[in-house]
Structures are given as C-alpha cells and as structure tokens.
Amino acid sequence: MTKLNERSAALANGGNFDLALSDADAIRFIDLACSLGYLKAGSIYQQQGRQREAIAMYEKGLRLVPSSDACYTTLQMRQAEAVNAENKCVDFISRLPLEIAVSVIIPLVFHNHCLEADVPCPYLYVSRIWPQRALQCNSLSFIIFCQYTDPPVQFQELERFGEHVKVLWIEFERTMYDEDPLFILHDYDFPSLPHLTISYYGYEDSDVISALQFIQRTLTHLKLLTGDNYTPEIHLGRVLDVCSNLVSLQLSTSIIHHLTVQYPKLTHLTMETGSDSPFPYDTMMNLLSHMPSLVFLDLYPIPDSRFLTAIWTLPQHEDPALQRKYTFCPRQLSSSS
C-alpha cells in the first residue's frame, strides 16, 4: 500500500488525476478499514478543487475507519478543511472594473435566467457587492408558479428586488386559491416593469384589467395566455385603453369592438380566437386603421380572404425596417409559447 500511495502522489503531482485516483481506489480495496486510501483520494480531489467529492470521501472514511486508526484524527481535520474550502465565496466581482462587471460579467450570469420569487438566488447573496453590481444592470427576470400552499408562499425576493424587475412571468389557476393570485401586481412594487406574461385560467376579463392598472404606466410588452376554452375572453380594446404604452401585445380573444382611439405605439400584435371562426373583415380593417405603427400581425385562425387582399393596399413606411409584415399561422397560443 505504501508503494501505491507513493505512485498515486507522483501521478497527481504530474496532473494524471484519473490514474492517481485509481491507485487510491486500489489502496481502499486492499483494506477498507485503513485511513490511507481515503486520505489519498480526498487529497487528489482537493488538488482539483473538487471539495464536495473530497468531503464525501473523508466522510466515508470516518464511517468505515475505526477511531483507533493512527490517522483517524487526520481524516477529521481534512474533512473540516474541505468543508471550509467549499464554503468560501470568492468575491472577484469587487476587484473588477465597474464597467466590466456591469456590462459583461453580470449579464453573462443572468442572461436568459429567470429567478424564482420565493427562492433566494445565490448570486445575489455572495456579498454586499454582488447585489449592488447586479442591480446596477437593473434587469432582473422573475418567474412565479403559483401553487396552493398552507401557509401561503411569501415572495420575499420580489419584495427586496421588485424595483429592478424588468421581466415577470406569472402562471396560476384561479380555482387553486382562496385568495386572488393577482395580488402580486398590487401588493408588490414594480416601478419599472416593461415585460409581463400572465398565464391564467378561470379569470374574468374585469379581474385581469383591474390588476393591469397597477403596472400599466411602464408596461410595453404584454402576453395574456390562457390554456383552455372555459376562461372568459378578454376585450382587446380594454387592454389597449388601460395599457396605453404597449409596443407588443399577445392574447387570446374574439372580442374586438370597433376601436375609436388611435394606438400609435403598438407595433406587434398576436391574437388567437377561442373558436374556429376567423376575425371578421370589417373588424380587422377597423383594427389596422387605428394602429398606424403596426409592423407585425400574427392571427389565428386565418382571416377572411378579402382581408388578405386588402392589407397589401395599405400604405407602407418609407423605411424598410418599419414596413408592415403579416403572418397567418395555423397554430394556437399556449402557456408554453
């Protein structure tokens, strides 16, 4: 075992960690109750910075090696050292130039990453500097899956970071709750929220509209998704009247009363009816006449054939980037869109 231990050490020092671990395994195979094999394997893991594997190896040794072993105390010490190393957080972010931390590192960490509203994000609790740098980017995304719990879940992360939230996704079913899940929009402060997705079931049009009033000032991108045919459809005009700054809107509805007000900010509109009946020709022409900046229109089902012909006669913008584009796709919106 002494020769195996010496060879294992030489292999590890030369960077041949797999072969070194193989020799450490052989030592343990020869004598499971000997501390030598566990100490050697743990040491190799630590050389690689694999503290969790080292901790597991030392703990296994402490279970199988008798306390009378001459190196039992060493096993305890190495295990404590590995735990201490695992718990260390390197606060490198505070040593980097502010511009690099804010424009490169933090966006890289949080890119396409939605935080959970009821689970602390470890990146925001490394040190006092980490949340400061993250919040200077002012671009946090949160996702909330509302489920019935007793007692109710407390969304402590929203309470702490709500003013920095730029993207919020809420998914719930009304019948699951004694209290209204839309309380999130009026009980928490979102002073600069531009992107909101609500995936819901069983809500009345008036309930959703009422909740949107609390955040309508900053809202520019809105998705209202329903996954069944039993949820009442929402009025397009009411949504646009309440959220007057919308640039992009996606929703399921067949309730489109003739519009009387212009919505010059809206550029993208995606709609689906709750039936197989297409949007009426007169309704769609009225809609387009009140959305002068619309450049993208996605409808399901495919509209009246007269509408398909008429839209190409509408005036186009001189800038090619702002010219109107229309898609009519045989698909349905869903909460997974």
TrEMBL record:
Repeat positions for TPR: 35-68
Sorted UniProt keywords: TPR repeat
InterPro entries associated with the record: LRR_dom_sf, TPR-like_helical_dom_sf, TPR_rpt
Domain of life: Eukaryota
This protein's name: Uncharacterized protein
Source organism of this protein record: Lichtheimia corymbifera JMRC:FSU:9682
Taxonomy of the source species: Eukaryota, Fungi, Fungi incertae sedis, Mucoromycota, Mucoromycotina
